[in-house]
Structure formats: structure tokens, C-alpha cells
Specification:
By secondary structure, this protein is mainly alpha-helical. It has 4 helices and no strands. Helix 1 packs across helix 3 (32-41), helix 2 (21-28) packs across helix 3 and helix 2 (21-28) crosses helix 4. The longest helix is centred in the N-terminal third of the chain and has 16 residues, at 2-17. The protein starts with a helix and ends in a 17-residue tail after the last helix. The relative contact order is 0.22.
């Protein structure tokens, strides 16, 4: 699924940048639980995903359909 695509991108970028979930959360200013969820599933709260994608230099024109309904 599309979550898997993002999960792979997130993990690759974190590896290149030498980040673990805790450091990703700290630098992006998001809850650790959201960073962990993104790493595990490729998805998390839409409130925080853009901050992490920006930090990781992941560009997306549109969010995957899995984000439908995740508006808070």
C-alpha cells in the first residue's frame, strides 16, 4: 500500500541522516508516538506528517488515500 511507500522513504532518509525516531521527533517538534507511528506504518497524524516529511526532505504533491479522514 501507499503507507509502505512512505515507510520505505522515511526509513531510507532517516538512515542517511543518522536519525532514530526520538531524534526525528525532537527535530521536527512532534510527539515521539507520531514519529514512531510514521516509522512503523508510513502514516501518522496529518497534523505532524508534513513537519517530518519536510525535515526528511520527502516531497509529496498529494498525500496517499490512506490519509483520507486523518484531518486532525
Amino acid at each position: 500500500g501507499l503507507g509502505d511507500v512512505y515507510k520505505r522513504q522515511v526509513r531510507e532518509r532517516m538512515s542517511v541522516m543518522g536519525l532514530d525516531a526520538a531524534e526525528l521527533a525532537r527535530r521536527a517538534g512532534v510527539p515521539l508516538s507520531s514519529a514512531e507511528e510514521l516509522v512503523e506504518t508510513g502514516l501518522t497524524s496529518i497534523r505532524y506528517v508534513y513537519r517530518m516529511f519536510d525535515l526528511l526532505h520527502i516531497r509529496t504533491e498529494t498525500l496517499p488515500s490512506a490519509y483520507a479522514g486523518r484531518l486532525l
